[in-house]
Amino acid sequence: MKRVTTMGAKLLLLGVSLFSLHAFGHTIEGGDASFVEAIDGPAIGPFIYLGAKHMVTGYDHLLFLLGVIFFLYRPKHVVQYVTLFAIGHSITLLLGVLANLQVNAYFIDAIIGLSVVYKAFENIDGFKRVFGFEPNTKVAVFVFGLFHGLGLATKLQEFDLSENGLVTNIISFNIGVEIGQILALSAVFLILSVWRTSSSYLRHSFITNTALMTGGFLLAGFQISAYLFQPPF
Amino acid sequence: MAEIDSNSPPSSKNILIASVISLVVALIVLFSFILPAEFGSDPLGTGELFGLNVLSLEENPLEEQLVVHKTDSVEFILGPFESVEYKYLLDMDSSMLFSWVADGELYYDMHAEPAALGEEYAESFEQGNSNSRMGSFHAPFTGIHGWFWENRGLSTITLQLYSSGFYVNSTVFRDGGSYERELQTVTD
Fold first, then answer.
1. Total structural domains in chain A?
2. How far is Cα B112 from Cα B121, in angstroms, rounded to an integer?
3. Which of A13, A227, A203 is nearest to A113 (CA)?
4. With an 8 Å Cβ cutoff, is A71 touching chain B?
5. Which of A34, B30, B101, B178 has an alpha carbon 20 to 30 Å from B149's alpha carbon atom?
């Protein structure tokens, strides 16, 4: 019982520290937003930068990727899974913006939060032991990639994007997203690799993934609240 | 009770317990901290308790001022390649409304210089060529805020500016010099 309470306390601490990262509705903001609105024509450099920035500062995407590579030990497997994720989100990012797919941003972000919950639950063997089946992890990563891409597309479409140079700009944004993802993943993978050399890694993997799950629940809860409390205009 | 053995795979019971704790912790954090701080809802009274409610207060669109606002109208005649600069002294967060109309196209640059810092800290808000511009302006800092106009054509152009706002005074910069101009209240 005591063990469980300490775990609860640790989770609470993690939850609070996650939240002090403030801006939860992870969007494109401030000066970047006015830039995106004002642009008329191809702007490869700026959109690559914005895509990379969105990914590197996007803890919702990062938490998911942390969950995905948590038990991937070989760089080859990391590349495989991340490629699946990248293909998934590239498809919906490009199609979403080009086909003008309008999906509620809060809804998508809540699903992205739940994707973190899903991955963490899978990492603690939840599906195998509680429900007695193992979902295909590659398919799951690909499908959640589709949702993450739809989230990115929704964020971009909140702006009045100019048709002029649209395709170039979205492809640039997407390239930026991949660059940002490689940067962030390399950092996460390095840290995990160092941690893996210590025996505490496996010992703490259960608690770490439970904490990750809490983070996912929080992300989803935040987005659902944002949906419920959004101003009526 | 639910002892978690770190060295063997977790049992389904422990997985369920951990998942439920995870969900409950998330809900507690959501209801006690995030709702009050982000969404102005305080179902458990914790927003009041920890003083979090202030974080979700919306910015008041009302900006109170302590003096009566002023109005001003001014006319400039610009011969070919002549230019003039006209700026109002505005405190930070003070606003003004303006309309300027010319009978020909002028190059303009709406910009501001922070008080006591001078030209090198000037910030430009809009530049272009036009016969007229209308708008509202909210001073981002205390200083002089206004326009540079230049006649880049060959005919003489008359420019008329109307404004109202919480400015203190205005200054004309012309022919290498500058002087404070008495505001001319708009009467009709």
1. 1
2. 9
3. A227
4. no
5. A34
Which mean pLDDT values do the consecutive 10-residue runs of chain A (233 residues) have? Answer: 45 41 49 67 82 84 86 84 88 87 84 92 83 84 89 79 80 89 86 84 86 93 89 63
Domains and CATH numbers, chain B: 12-56 (no CATH), 70-181 (2.60.120.680)
The pair phi, psi for residue B85, each rounded to 5°, is: -130, 135
What DSSP string runs through B15-81? HHHHHHHHHHHHHHHIIIIIHHHHHS--TTSHHHHHT-GGGGPPPPS----SS--EEEEEEEEE-TT
Which residue in A231, A223, A191 sits closest to A65, CA to CA?
A: A191
Whether the model clears a pTM of 0.80, i.e. scores above it, the answer is no
Element (H, E) at A63: helix A59-69
Phi/psi of residue A136, nearest 5 degrees: -70, 110
Chain B residues with CB inside 8 Å of A31's CB? none
Angle (nearest 5°) at CA A26 between A24 and A29? 115
At residue B183, the 3 state secondary structure works out as coil
Question: Is residue A99 situated within a structural domain?
Answer: yes
Query: Which two tokens mark A199?
Result: 């025996």
Looking at this predicted complex, what is its ipTM? 0.71
Closest partner residue to A125 (CB to CB) among B15, B29, B41 is B15
A46 vs A186: CA distance, rounded Å:
23
In chain B, the residue whose alpha carbon lies closest to the alpha carbon of A16 is B29
Q: Are strands B83-90 and B143-150 parallel, antiparallel or unpaired?
A: antiparallel
Count other Cβ atoms within 10 Å, centred on residue A80: 14
